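[Q] Does anyone have a clean structure-token version of this?
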Amino acid sequence: MFAVLSYFGVCFNGRGMEYAMLLRSLVMVLAALALVMFLAPVAVAADKVHEGKVVKAGDGQLTMTDKEGANKQTHKVPATATITCDGKECKLEDLKDGNWVKVTMDQDETTVRKIEASTKEKS
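[A] Here you go.
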């Protein structure tokens, strides 16, 4: 270790062990940072978002179309999902045919996490 430090021009002046510990600490911090940077994209995978109009809502399911009114799809909505209507908390049964919705699903695209509904027409 001292040979490496000497190679890079570190002057020991009787403090070789302190410099060695400093170098070890620096290497460990850089290794931890590299590991975090490598694993961060896996941990922060993007959620899937659907936007469109409500066709039917209730009984733990939301049927909706896409923004153009085509491609009807049905999603299972767990009791743990957060649902808001015009920014206020509401229930799945409060969603009406024609309401605009933004549905956020987990990465697995099977679990609805959040529904944001609006009675106002989106452009």
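[Q] Thanks! Anything notable?
[A] Helices lie at 2-7, 16-43.
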